[in-house]
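Example A, followed by Example B.
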Amino acid sequence: MPTADDLKALIRDIPDYPEPGVMFRDITPMLSVPGTLAAVAEQMAAPWSDVDLVVGIESRGFILGAPMAAPLGAGFVPVRKPGKLPYDTIEISYDLEYGTDSLELHIDAVEAGERVLIVDDVLATGGTAGATIALLERAGATVVGCSFLLEIAPLGGRQALGEIPVDVVLSYP
């Protein structure tokens, strides 16, 4: 299992992307190292149990969430940007640290009471995860927690998610 230092060495920092003042944490170099994705997915899944669905947020949440679903014995559901899902959807709009955005979920993706785990690569301000929680709760799901590869702790995303349990592999101060 890679250590936190091993993983941080594989994550590329890109300053001023997507706009000035933002430090983007690029996980694509980490994904190219054989065995690392499987190890990270296993580590991210380990704290969770009794999950019906893993919900991955577009797009790196798909990469991390899909391999987490198998060891959890859960299904996988994507939450996508508008116009990307081919069937009827429900949508939510939200603010994020550098603008606004929207997310969609198929209307039949979750059943009332299903226990879902939300997965994404980065927890920053919590805007995207918070919107996903609201979208899933509107669809009738029970959000059991959120799992992130990394957290930008000073941005307060964990606090923005309220009482929802959060687990992260790496935290950036």
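Example B, a separate protein, is given below in the same form.
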Amino acid sequence: MSNLTQIIKYEGDNKTFIWKHPTEDFNTETQLIVHESQRAIFYMNGQALDEFPAGRYTLETQNIPMIKKVFSNVSGGETAFHCEVYFINVAEQMGIKWGLKDRVNYMDPHYNNYPFKVGCRGEMSLRVEEPRKLLVKLVGTTHGLSQENLVDKFRAQLMMKINAHLPILLEKKAAPIFAVGQYTEEFSEVIHKKLLLDYEDYGITIPKFWIEEIVLPEDDPTYRKLKELTAGEMTILREEKLSQQREIIRQDTEQRKKILDADAEAYRNKVRGITVQEELAYEVAKAAAENEASGGLANIGTGLGMMAPMAYGIGSAVAGIATNALEPIRTSFSNAQQGSSMQMAGGIQEEMPEMLSPVDETEMIQPMPQINAGGTDNFEERMNKLMLAREKGFLSEEEFERKRKEMIAEI
């Protein structure tokens, strides 16, 4: 029995799901080594018997009870038996790529239900959940099952599910052909759930499944033309959006600058101890001085009238400043008016001497009608005199009215 295999262990690669050990004759002194993420199953006469998890085992009858029932030839204190050993890799195998061989039709509602040919591709991961079920249903008496072989066995089911569900999902979204790529994550989740039941029947699960890309019909002339037009529209929209953003930024910058300038001016005035009213008084005095320099005598009179109440309303200190600043202007304006009057009078006298001949003072001075409050004058005569005095300008309207009421009260 010395020629029998003494150690049984896995010698396959990481992309293999099931690997069959080449030796088939063993005895009860043989060592079985099962690595982490592996399972070992003894297979005899087309039947899966004992299963071993990760660990190191000496093949004794208590460890392989099912084989003992089938084969119990004892020779020299050792039990020799003939069987097959399969190692099943139960680690999750990732990066398994897939892709549709044939594309599906998508009737795009945005372009008069034009039938675009759409495909997809992606990746998934696989993991063996029930080693015995996979071994019995897919392997049988073959030498093993690689990742590629497993994907090939399930490719038809995979393509059938995607071909059936992808058009339905696209139709529900009713998105333009150029926008279907944004739904890859959602489509992945739906198709993933549909595939799980098919794989579970073989003791396999799909921990991850995702669509990497919706393959668009780049070879379709209609699609290319629409793509060019859409790209042009998107460029215009982006430029308009950028222009609007720039304008918003410009307005915001100007507003912030105004606020900063106002804050800076207020701070300077605070440091100098000048209030807003005082600042305004300075500006008025400055404007008046500029008007004087430019000869605007008519405007000065108006300006002085406006500045007077302002000077009195801004405090004694600034009022004094304003008064001192306005005094030369006031004096200059008065002198200018007097000189202008004298010059005008002289000019008139030279041009119209006959109209300016001496006049008898007695003719110029007329006595003011006397209004006798009592005596022999009757009321009508007194009222006529009162009215005559108002017409001659000896009484103001207010004085006339007051006097009239007094006369009426005496009746």
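On Example B: Residues 73-77, 296-304, 306-315, 347-376 have pLDDT under 50 and may be disordered.
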